Amino acid sequence: xxxxxxxxxxxxxxxxxxxxxxxxxxxxxxxxxxxxxxxxxxxxxxxxxxxxxxxxxxxxxxxxxxxxxxxxxxxxxxxxxxxxxxxxxxxxxxxxxxxxxxxxxxxxxxxxxxxxxxxxxxxxxxxxxxxxxxxxxxxxxxxxxxxxxxxxxxxxxxxxxxxxxxxxxxxxxxxxxxxxxxxxxxxxxxxxxxxxxxxxxxxxxxxxxxxxxxxxxxxxxxxxxxxxxxxxxxxxxxxxxxxxxxxxxxxxxxxxxxxxxxxxxxxxxxxxxxxxxxxxxxxxxxxxxxxxxxxxxxxxxxxxxxxxxxxxxxxxxxxxxxxxxxxxxxxxxxxxxxxxxxxxxxxxxxxxxxxxxxxxxxxxxxxxxxxxxxxxxxxxxxxxxxxxxxxxxxxxxxxxxxxx
Length: 404
What we know:
One of its GO terms (biological process) is cell differentiation. By secondary structure, the protein is mainly alpha-helical.
């Protein structure tokens, strides 16, 4: 277990895959394999914080271990992870799925909410009766499942009513539990599970076109949800309100970011489907001397405090981005798809940010990278403008907007 797996927050692995790995190990070492249930107990002894979730639609759901990942050094890594990805759309396995049809929430009908923390195993304070805690957790899980069902039905405004009904209709015998610290800890955990399930429901796992009407409804839902939550929580203990809103904020940000990415991808797909346009983009971009641009950009940004902070980081980003533009030209020459562009972005960020070992924080490295990218991009766009490049608009879009 130590050799192949590690604690990984937010990662799910099918339970059957890990057991298959174990069976292969036993066969190789000529050990007698224990049953799946016993193996699960052994795994939890080694990784106590790992939980079990049931993911998928009704009739096709499977049990997953949540909170555990496969080490990159493991022999099983490549067989499970087909390439690393920084977006939910990365990976070769999903490249051709659904590219030609529009996304519909009805495809998520029957989505099941993953497991919540089991009240039977919570370390409760003496003033919190376990039977009441179990009742509250059951009620909250049912409430969250109804939210998912409402979203799958595209009945977004029903979520407002569900929130009001649950929080303003809290039974008197359960209301005192909301003052307990254990509730302040558990509710945000449950909300995090709910929001991940909602994100998987609202945003397709592949780069499918989202109908404009659905995209508008999702935007309105994301805009109004915080307000609905605040109204529904009126009179609820401040600690509970604070915990729920803290978890809600990144969920809203995530929805908006993923939806923007999908819409950018839709526009990019239309551009890449026109072969004459792509050929012109490649021809115009090939006229630009990227190495000369990087040198000029270096003089322009030479006095920035960011460069003074870490010159090696600055130089590294410059080299990476010079290579990235060369790769982009290669992609355009082969008339690649929007999924190929997504993978190109993955490789770009991986080489410029994640693979670089420095004392700088991720935020500092990201700031340096974005400074370099915007500087190089602005000079490239300027050169395309000066030479009246026919594909100026398309290249400007690809260089200046797609990454953001």
